[in-house]
From TrEMBL:
GO MF term set: hydrolase activity
Keywords: Glycoprotein, Hydrolase, Signal
Family to which the UniProt record says this protein belongs: Belongs to the 'GDSL' lipolytic enzyme family.
UniProt cross-references to InterPro entries, sorted A to Z: GDSL (IPR001087), SGNH_hydro_sf (IPR036514), SGNH_plant_lipase-like (IPR035669)
Protein name (database record): GDSL esterase/lipase
Entries under SUPFAM superfamilies matching the protein: SGNH hydrolase
Any Pfam family the entry gives: Lipase_GDSL
Signal peptide range in chain numbering: 1-27
Amino acid sequence: MSPPPVVLTALAVVTLATLLFSSPASAAAARRRPRPFEKIFAFGDSFTDTGNTRSATGPSGYGHVSSPPYGVTFFHHPTNRYSDGRLVIDFVAQSLSLPFLPPFRGLPSSPSAAAHGVNFAVAGSTAIDHEFFVKNNLNLDTTPQSLLTQLLWFSKYLESHEGCRGKACRGALRDALVWVGEIGVNDYAYTLGSNVSGDTIQKLAIGTTTAFLEALLRRGARYMVVQGLPLSGCLPLAMFLDPLGEKDDLGCVKSANDQTRAHNAALLATISNLRKQFPDAVIVYADYWYAHYTVMKSAAKHGFKESFRACCGTGEPYHFTPFATCGTAFADACPRPSEYINWDGVHLTEATYRVIADMFLNGRYTHPPFRYMLSKKLRSG
């Protein structure tokens, strides 16, 4: 007697879950099995950017990402990723038996170049349109691209590589995973010390993010993961800028962490509303704040020996200064990045991204669980 379909679906989901972060042999076997998704379209900022920003065009405070030792751990050369190796989105792609996502900028015109998706994330990108910062004289040393820019790029990609426009592109998104990485930290950072309030930034950023997500859903996105913001108050940059500020239970800048937590609460409310508007879509919230918190709270458990100092940089007490960041001639890197949570004072190490990706894909830090999305995709075909 054959098992009922629901049992077969459950078995398939378990099989997929066991393949995530498995051995090379198992990964090779996974590549021979049908993929749950054929493509990934990624959006966000430097935590997700796989090469849309070069050091010559990005904010100087982010360091020279095109220079060593960026990329030293996995790729063994700079790939314009803000880390020593892979990012969360890279681990997501690998877990789904897909290649690393090429950045939209410089993407060849041939269809094969984007056969398995594209990354539109840009380091320094904001949720709010760049014109807002220009009008408020806050555009010095900022990235001009915003979520609106990434949406325009996506439209150009659909027209040039998929041959469709608007709602006619639903077919191109049917088997795609849309991954919206964290976006919004830069909005708060660019207005630090200005007359623009955090409440204003939250309202505008959530509003533009909502419009962005709605646009993707109306075009046919059915499987979407939206990341919240991380613990911005635990980054060496925040600790450097506010050394005497009130600290939370982790020893991080409390005001910054409270701000990103409040932002995430508003984002989650937006996602809840979108689920009602688009009941046929699966919209997963990835709780970056709580995942990052868990890593910081139990660093040793995850193999980390250094929670606050940046691996790559210079200066005390956090091995970070905005004037001699990673990739410059003045900076140096630690010998074992895998023992550090933070890479360059603003971004995380590959080891940290690996742990967080595992939390998203296999743990309890996505709502609903990522496995639920996989099961829905398997049932729909």
